[in-house]
Amino acid sequence: MAEVPCRRIMVVDDDVFILEVMKELFEPEGIGVVTAESGDACIRELEKGFRGVILMDIMMPQKDGWETIEEMIDRGLMEGNIVAMLTAKDVPDGELDYLKEHVIDYITKPFEANEIIAIVKGYLDYLA
Amino acid sequence: MENSASLSCDGRTIVIIGSSTGGPRTLETIFLRFPLVDAAIVIVQHMPHHINSALCRHLAKTSRMEARVAEDGDPVEHGTIYVAPSDIHLKLVGNRTISLFDDEKVQYVRPSIDVAMTSLKRSGSDRIVGVILSGMGSDGAQGIRHIKTIGGATIAQDLRTCAIHAMPRAAFETGNVDQMLPPEGIRERIIQIAGTL
């Protein structure tokens, strides 16, 4: 599949406050924000055709961020997307190394607004 | 190809940068307004294949170096950044020619930083530099040990500046890292070693 031009991000987090904060941060920058409150909701958005930068929380009920990425890989939904983990959780040593080719960045909470906007804009440029 | 290649007499500076999760941010800082230097720079970044060319475009746009996705048989030229393509291993034959080859993943990844770095050979005329940036796991640690063994300079990203510090920490723990530097320091050190054109 060809690279898809886009200026959209998807924020995947079970914390509705975070989803709202991200919309307030990015929409004034001209970046569309799709929100997903679970891994399953993220998969549904991808199946509907979302392509862009995905900011993925790790700690979510039912299906965590890593399991969601595994499902994206299994279903062939990684193409055209850039995934960065968005989390307060430390990276566990070793056990998730097999996913590192698929995760471009790891952004820790709390984050500075200017910093995360700059990071995401950089990755959107990759997809432009 | 490997058997026929031999080390050239004219010296060259070859920089291999190993990078994984969080590395693109560091690469951006290193190569922002980066001058044209007298070195061939090979970047092995763990990443999905659909952003290989985008990373090259980005590096070419922000630096004065030429940047391209490495192809099998490419001679390594100074003033050029070669980005290892995803899903295939990269090695340097005789320190001069890029070879891409299919093989099992090493530590879950292909291309492997260790595979690329350990392909370098000791040469009286070449200057070799190995750099390890942010990332999960320990890919590159073996490569850094090898580069030190063949007389090269070794650098790892300062842990406080890493999105994920496992990879530079693993390199550091080999006892073969000369310097732990923040991205700006890595940039300056590469320029200092290579010299500008």
From TrEMBL, chain A:
The modification 4-aspartylphosphate is found at residue 57. The keyword Phosphoprotein applies. Pfam families: Response_reg. It comes from the Archaea. InterPro entries: Bact_response_regulator (IPR050595), CheY-like_superfamily (IPR011006), Sig_transdc_resp-reg_receiver (IPR001789). The keyword Zinc does not apply. Gene3D superfamilies: 3.40.50.2300. Residues 8-124 form the Response regulatory domain. Keywords: Phosphoprotein. This is Response regulator. It comes from Methanoculleus nereidis.
TrEMBL record, chain B:
Residues 8-192 form the CheB-type methylesterase domain. The keyword Hydrolase applies. SUPFAM superfamilies: Methylesterase CheB, C-terminal domain. Pfam families: CheB_methylest. Its EC number is 3.1.1.61. InterPro entries: CheB_C, Sig_transdc_resp-reg_Me-estase. Keywords: Chemotaxis, Hydrolase. The keyword Hydrolase applies. It catalyses: [protein]-L-glutamate 5-O-methyl ester + H2O = L-glutamyl-[protein] + methanol + H(+). Gene3D superfamilies: Methylesterase CheB, C-terminal domain (3.40.50.180). Signal peptide: none annotated. The active site is at residues 20, 46, 139. This is protein-glutamate methylesterase. It comes from Methanoculleus nereidis. The lineage of its organism: Archaea, Methanobacteriati, Methanobacteriota, Stenosarchaea group, Methanomicrobia.
